Amino acid sequence: MSKTALIEIKEGSYKIRGNDISVAGLKFPLIDHFKEGKNGNYVTVDGGAQPGFPDRSIRIRIEKPQDYEIVDSNFDQVKQDALKKQVKNDETDEQIMDRIGKRFKILDDMTRAAKQGDIKAMIVSGPPGVGKSYGVEEQLNKDSAFDDIAGQRRKFEVVKGAMSAIGLYAKLYKYSDPKNVVVFDDCDSVLLDDLSLNILKAALDTSKKRYISWNTDSRLLRSEGIPDRFEFKGSAIFITNIKFENVRSKKLKDHLEALESRCHYVDLTIDGEREKMLRIKQIVRDGMLDDYDMPQERKDDLIEFISENKARLRELSLRTVLKIADLAKSFPTDWRDYASTTVMKG
């Protein structure tokens, strides 16, 4: 059993959306002790022990080692998991919905920043069916309205499914201009291939000029007029169901860490059944079912049906909500029977 310590921050802050938020009085599992950095001193902790913080290692900015103290020197992984569970269980439903809502607001803001070229790369992590892809595409579509009016090519593309390394190279070239965005939506094959990963590392490098090269002769690239070297000035967004810190494969973990070091990482913090259900309630409350032209009472019945049967659903997600809403619109009196047959486990 790996041992670590539980520390309490006496004076310190963590940057959220550009603002320094005080974390004085909060307790975190320690990952690495006090370090001096070019941009300030810090201590590295597990942020997942506190609500509203990324569920991964984070750096708490402090001035000196005396700004934190060890409160449990024998803190181990079992205690750490119990602390996370306790902290999350202490949240009220409103606090959870507020936390998740803030994360999606950050996702919207970061997507717009990527479209403007202010952010070069972002990873969006969360379970399937909670609106990750929809939120990103909605913001990009809004920002592309003027291109549509002018009859110009949209400056973004959403890539789904498998992609080869040479296909990745060609796609990045197509969207290499400033304020262009390539979105990789559950396109995890590019993360598993060494050549593809090297291309991404070059495209997302933190240097002022990001050059990508293809050093093997290719008839495909010649026929498409794609050079064997170009400067990538666009941005990339990765949408994935993979929770990076939970990956056990050493090779994949190394690949993901290389990518994460070049990207902003947005964890939507929807990890359990309770959070998924509250996310559903949040989206329905915000108007997800307005286009269905059904009485509020039926919407309430629909959510109650999902809540009561969530353990039996094939998938607890926004997609399931829409499936059941389709049934409720088509079969106003018998929709529960149809839903029990089509979206629930036998």
Unreliable residue runs: none
CATH architecture of the largest domain: 3-Layer(aba) Sandwich
Write out the strand line-up for the largest beta sheet, numbering strands in chain order: 6-5-4-1-7
* Structural class category: alpha/beta
**Count of DSSP strands:** 14
**How large is the radius of gyration?**
23 Å
Query: What overall geometry do the principal axes of the alpha carbons give?
Result: globular
Strand content: 15-25%
The average pLDDT is: 87
| CATH top level label of the largest domain | Alpha Beta
- SSE run: EEEEEEEHHEHHEHEHHEHEEHEHHHH
Structural domain count: 3
Kindly identify the CATH topology of the largest domain. Answer: Rossmann fold
Can you offer a commentary on this structure?
- The protein has 346 residues and is an alpha/beta fold.
- The chain is 41% helix and 21% strand.
- It is globular, with a radius of gyration of 23 Å.
- The mean pLDDT is 87.
- The strands form four sheets. The chain has a five-stranded antiparallel β-sheet with strand order 6-5-4-1-7. Strands 9-10-13-8-14 form a five-stranded parallel β-sheet, with helices on one face. The chain has a two-stranded antiparallel ribbon with strand order 2-3.
- It has three domains: 3-90, no CATH class; 95-267, Rossmann fold (3-Layer(aba) Sandwich); 273-342, no CATH class.
- A hairpin with a 6-residue loop joins strand 4 and strand 5 (42-46).
- It has helices spanning 77-89, 93-115, 132-143, 145-150, 165-174, 189-192, 194-203, 219-223, 250-260, 273-285, 296-308, 318-330, 335-342, and strands at residues 3-9, 13-16, 19-22, 27-35, 42-46, 57-61, 68-76, 121-125, 156-160, 181-185, 211-213, 229-231, 235-240, 264-267.
